[in-house]
Design brief:
There is one protein chain. Helix 5 crosses helix 18 and helix 10 crosses helix 11. The protein is globular. The strands form 2 sheets. Strands 4-5-6-7-8-9-10-11 form an 8-stranded parallel barrel, surrounded by 7 helices. It is of the alpha/beta class. The protein has 19 helices and 11 strands. It folds into 3 domains: 61 residues, no CATH class; 327 residues, Aldolase class I (TIM Barrel, Alpha-Beta Barrel); 37 residues, no CATH class.
């Protein structure tokens, strides 16, 4: 039996592949070890087997109601005041992606949560070695493995224009972001955060001039996104006015950006659904010499004020908080109270994973970083600071080893993840949001051709930008 037939027969007669179509007679059979093997093939197999595994996961999802979806209509409803009181967590799934996502979906099922996002940034795609096609297959496979049903919101986080590259060759840099957007949309990313905030020029005399490149280049990329939407789907697109880790955003900046964006948006084109702002955080937090994280001065009043203006004046869901996973636990209940639309969570889950790695593997990774990330080490960095800042770069090179951790190690980490996600979902008030999602989000089926029957398509080039 060849490799493709082996994949097709993983679920026995419960899943049948015939004439390029998939049928599922027993959905319960999907939540077992056969799905583990299918997802493993979608990540690590040779190209023909890998591509078929990804297609099979996608089509199984279409059959049983586990479909990639856009959160746009839910966010527009929030902008109209038709729903409120929760903050959508957008979780950057970096290392051990399948195990991490399984924990997220287990938690969602337990709490009847539907309003959550799985995301990966332009820079993360590179250093975690997870192209969009792989990422979508792993997220959907994890949902199927846990028995989740409903829309799956997969997001391109920080599809960012690099300011230095833009200054050197604007067209090439913008075209690279557009190419990534096309690849991501084709894979099933129906939520994309365009980040051109790097182009804000505070040396200009007026706020409109300062934000001009931000909104004009942003519209250019948004137009590319709209041109490649599947029929019946309006991709949720976010903008950004303040680069995370810099000075806090203001209402005046938000208005300058949004007024310029809407003024220049092509007639009839759907605009933004949310806006990312800066309110005192930074990606990954600020690590101190002893390896601890510095306290964050989070400006909740600014966040609340910007969210209200975004909703009341522009019909958006509200403001988005980045760089939040390393905040103290006592902070998270504030976000739904302040009507923050969305919050991005990444580094703390990576920290938890590293804390649970076997000591031998962690030492091996750190030795690899000493050699392969040495150019990123500052003279003042302690070992703790250096490894904390760079260990994300080992997620791609050590992906197989992390995927194959012993079962007892995975079980201990899974329990820790389940506890953390349960806490966060409760604090952000997304329990019982499955019904709200069902009310506003109508998921269109998107069928795909069996790649074993289709003509070969050249692989998309790797994107090596490391911008966060």
């Amino acid at each position: 039996m060849d490799k493709i037939e082996t994949l097709n027969s993983l679920f026995g007669g419960n899943v049948v592949v015939r004439d390029g179509k998939v049928s599922v007679s027993n959905p319960a059979a999907l939540a077992g070890p056969a799905m583990d093997r299918l997802v493993d093939a979608a990540v690590f197999a040779e190209q023909d087997e890998r591509d078929h595994a990804r297609w099979l996961i996608w089509e199984i999802g279409q059959e049983v109601g586990v479909r990639a979806a856009s959160i746009h209509d839910l966010y527009m409803a929030r902008g109209r005041g038709e729903t409120h009181g929760f903050t959508v967590p957008a979780i950057n799934v970096r290392g051990m992606a399948y195990d991490t996502a399984r924990s997220i979906f287990r938690t969602a099922i337990k709490l009847n949560a539907g309003a959550f996002i799985l995301e990966i940034a332009r820079s993360e795609i590179a250093y975690t070695d997870q192209r969009p096609g792989e990422y979508v297959a792993v997220m959907l496979g994890a949902a199927l493995r846990e028995g989740f049903r409903g829309p799956v919101f997969i997001q391109g986080d920080h599809f960012q224009v690099n300011a230095k590259k833009f200054a050197a060759d604007a067209k090439t840099e913008v075209d690279a972001v557009k190419a990534l957007a096309r690849e991501a949309i084709a894979a099933g990313f129906y939520n994309i955060d365009i980040d051109t905030s790097t182009l804000v020029d505070i040396s200009k005399p007026t706020l409109d001039e300062q934000q001009e490149l931000n909104f004009t280049v942003g519209i250019d990329i948004l137009s590319e996104v709209r041109a490649h939407e599947p029929p019946g789907i309006t991709i949720s697109v976010g903008g950004e006015i303040g680069e995370v880790g810099t000075q806090n955003s203001t209402v005046e900046e938000l208005r300058a950006y949004m007024d310029g964006f809407n003024r220049n948006l092509p007639r009839g084109a759907a605009g933004l659904s949310k806006i990312s702002v800066q309110s005192g955080t930074s990606h990954g937090g600020v690590v101190l010499p002893d390896g601890s994280i510095a306290d964050v001065k989070l400006d909740l009043d600014t966040l609340e004020r910007l969210s209200k203006v975004a909703r009341d004046e522009y019909g958006l869901a509200g403001a988005v908080q980045h760089g939040a996973s390393t905040l103290p636990d006592t902070a998270f209940h504030n976000f739904p109270k302040r009507e923050t639309a969305e919050i991005h969570l990444a580094t703390n889950f990576q920290n938890m994973m590293y804390d649970h790695l076997p000591a031998e593997l962690r030492s091996k990774i750190y030795e690899w970083l000493r050699e392969n990330a040495k150019d990123e080490r500052k003279a003042s960095d302690s070992d703790e600071q250096f490894f904390y800042k760079t260990r994300k770069k080992a997620l791609g090179p050590f992906k197989r080893q992390m995927w194959d951790l012993p079962a007892n190690v995975k079980a201990t980490l899974a329990a820790a993840y389940d506890e953390k996600f349960t806490f966060l979902f409760n604090q952000l008030a997304i329990g019982n949001t499955a019904a709200i999602v069902s009310r506003f989000v109508k998921v269109q089926p998107v069928r795909r051709q069996d790649p074993s029957e289709a003509a070969g398509v050249a692989a998309a080039p790797d994107d090596a930008d490391l911008s966060d």
